[in-house]
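Worked example 2:
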Amino acid sequence: MPDLPPVLILAAGASRRMGAHDKLAEDIGGQSLLGHVADVALGSGAEVFVTLPDPDMDRARLLAEKPVKILRVPDADSGMAASLRTWPGAAPQDTPGVVVMLADMPDVTSADLATLMQAFMGAGAKRIIRATDTSQTPGHPVIFPRHLFEDFADLRGDQGARPLLRGQDVIQVALPDLHATTDLDTPRDWAAWRARQTSPPEQAD
């Protein structure tokens, strides 16, 4: 059976919508959001790569002692595609694909990643797997098969890998609740998410 596809965490964005604060340094359960997401990825059992701006020692410190491989992105300011362009040169030779995971999505779990990887391997590691929420709204993570790696080099701007999805036979896999669509970009996003974490569950009639 082929190895699990590695996880590529995109963490080279500038976090401009958070003002003076780095969203990836925000606290979740006693550690940074970036550290939390790295632990989730590692919990899948797959190899984990993290893209970071070059240089950025602050975010690198958030990953201290975590067994991840850091990919430096010198042109990170040009958009998310810059992180994806680093992947073909870093990809393990025998990997069947890659799980592209955003660094600002706190609700994705290791079990979610396992569900997506199972769907990918069940499809022969040949088709794109895209997570959705329970209402079928597309989100992340997304798994790309190896035969699309060469197309990463042509990606530009801040659309990420969206152009690679066009015209492809994509398998959509629903994750629980809003796991696939909750990302935290602004102070308002964080406030709303934290309020949901502390709200008591609704009581059935």
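The chain has one domain: 7-196. The mean pLDDT is 91.
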